[in-house]
Each structure stands twice: as C-alpha cells, then as structure tokens.
Amino acid sequence: MAIVSAYSSVLKSPGVARIIAAQLTARFPSGMLSLAVLLHVQFVHHNYGSAGLVLGAASVGQAVAGPLTSRLMGRLGMRPVLTLTLLVCAATVVLIALLPMSVPATMAVALLMGLANPPVQPAVRTIYPKLVNSQLLTPLFSLDASAQEIIWIAGPVVITFISAQVSTVLGLLVCAAIMLGGGAWFIASPELGRVRIPRSKRRFGVVLTRPTVLLSTIVGFLLIGACSSVEAGVVANFQGADGSTHGIESGIVLAVWSLGSLTGGFAFGHVPIGPWALARRMLLMLVGVAVAAIWMNVWWLIGWLVVSGAGIAPALAAMFAMTSASVKFSDTAEAYGWIGTGQLVGAGLGSTIAGFFIDAHGAQGAFWVAAVFAVIGVLVPALTVRWLPDLRGRDSSPIPDTEPIPVQS
Fold first, then answer.
1. d(CA 75, CA 356)
2. Residue 207 has what DSSP assignment?
3. How far apart are CA 44 and CA 54, in angstroms?
4. 161 Cβ contact partners less than 8 Å away, ≥ 6 residues apart
5. What is the pLDDT of residue 51?
6. Which domains are assigned to the chain?
7. What are the start-end ranges of the H helices in 116-248?
C-alpha cells in the first residue's frame, strides 16, 4: 500500500502525469534508434563491425553535446535549445535512411545526429523538483526510471518488426516521425514555460568535481554499456547468416528484459536510498547477465534477463536521486547532462565492442562484454561507498542557489 500511495500522490501533483507522458513520447525513439541503425547498417554493409562503428560515432556526438546543450538551456532557455536540436537530429535520421553512403560517410552523419540529440532527459529531471514537494521527489525519480522502461519494452518490438519484416529504411523514418511528434509535444508543455533554469555561476565541468556526479557518470557508463552489449547480442542471436531475423524473438526478449526493469523500479521505488543501494542494485543486474551468458536459448535468456532487469531501473533511480541531493539547482541540468553523456558513451562503446565480439565469437561474445561492464559497475560504487550520500530520512531536493543570511537585529 505504501508503494501505491507514494506513486498515487506523485501522479496527482499538477502537471506531473502530463510531463511524464510527453517526455516518454519524446524519448521513445531512444528505444528504437540504436536497433534501427544497427539493422540498417548491417543490412547495407553486411557486418556488425560497421554497424558498431556507426553507433559509436553517434554516441561520441551525444557524449560531446550532452553537458553542452544541457548548460545552454540555462543561458538560452529550454525551448530554443530543444527545438533546434530536435529539427537537426530528425533530419540526420532521414538522411541515413534515404541516402546510400559509405561507412565513413554514415559515421559522419551519425556524429551530427549525436551532436544534435535533444536534451529532453536533463530538461525533465531539472523540472521535476519544481513539480512535487521534497518528500515525493525520490518516488518521482523512481517512477520516471521505471516508466522509461516502456520505451525499452515497446520500442525494440516495434522497430524489430518494422525493420526486419518490412524495411530498415521504414524503421528509421518511423523513428524520425515519432521524434518530431513527441518532441513537439514536450516542447509545448506548459511546465517548460513555468520553470527556468538559473544561469550557473560555476565554470563548465566543475560540477564533475562533486563525487556523486562523477560516480553516477561512471556507473551510468558501465550500466548502459552492459545493456547495449546485451541488446546487440540478443539481436545477433536471433538473426540468420543471410541477415534475416527469425520471427520477432529478439524484440520479445528485449521487451521482457525491460519489463523486469519496470517491475524492479516499482518494487524498489519506496525504499530509502542508502550508500550501498547502488552497488546492491548493480549486483542484481550483474548476476542476471552473467548467468544468461551461459546459454543462448530463448527461455533461458528471458528468465535470467528478467533477474538482470530488476536491478536496472532501481540503479538509475538511485543515481538520479543521489545527484539531485548533491548539487545546486542551477547545476542540475549540467550534472544530468554529464550523467547522460556517460550513459551514451557506454551505449556506443558497448555496441562497438559487442559488434566485433559478435563477428569473432558469435552472439555469446556480446554477453561476455556485458558481464565485464557489469562487474566493474559493481566494484566502482562498492569501493567508493564513503563518497555516496545517505538519503535515508532526508529528501533528495537540489541544494538551493540562494540561502537565507542571518541578520543581527
């Protein structure tokens, strides 16, 4: 009942349900685009190594742009930055879909696509503390981390079916269409007009000197690196040598994996976050991936990836809450930008390494890569636990930019 009550209170707060729905729609292509590009480039160039290089180039662009576009929102406003990046990013997706290009040329366009990635995630997580009271902020972060798994449940199924059964070109065009529609809805949301990010007084990058921000960036890199490796391995496991996908098994396995994350996020959403929370949740993810790597049978993968998924959303929620409680409000967008950069670099590097391991060792090689990422992802927060905040009994609101000054009367 406590879980239901917390989430019910969050959703009853004015504007919360609307902004969650809008940002989920705007970010829905995130669950489709990597697979769409992977399948399209593999179909055009007939190897996963090339597809991994293209995804890596896109992730490099996203990594560079993440903290920059997030900080620009404090200077230029959220709507102008989101609008420009949205239009450029959608145009590059259409270009990759319709124009046959060499691998280096595709990498160049993918780099621009990454540079123009709309900073929806930093924007919405900066808005959240202004929509609910401090007691509801941790459940809101957990709800957000859980709800985003809808992206990874429906996205892989939809894009695998469209790209494999109809056309990889159509798959990319669908990504661009949803990106434009969802992005427009999010940009038009009233909450973006009500909340203004203060201009940070700190130099660019100084927020990374906060141990919690740095550790969340590193652990996010490792977590998403493991996830992207598993994603590539699952797709390759159910794809024949001629490039045909046997049914939609890969989409179903990835969707069930995300369903495990969704369930874990809701189950742990009300649990107070202590210093060891991140390491424990990463350990759950590691166990599932490591055991899944033993056998590439569909039912074995489904069973153990559900275990793995149960740690993903809770780990992300812990990172978001710890970061929020450790920085000033004017620095939150940049902090989440850096964390997003870490995750995107992890996605690109995980996909790239997994692509080469798939070519060399088959689909199982991608799971070996994921297990290595996950092992390090457990060790980092475990070895640095003294630097992580204890949020049990306190809220996760950002530090105010202005504080009262005592005046002697």
1. 41
2. G
3. 12
4. 248, 251
5. 85
6. 17-190+205-387 (1.20.1250.20)
7. 120-127, 134-147, 149-161, 168-188, 190-194, 211-237
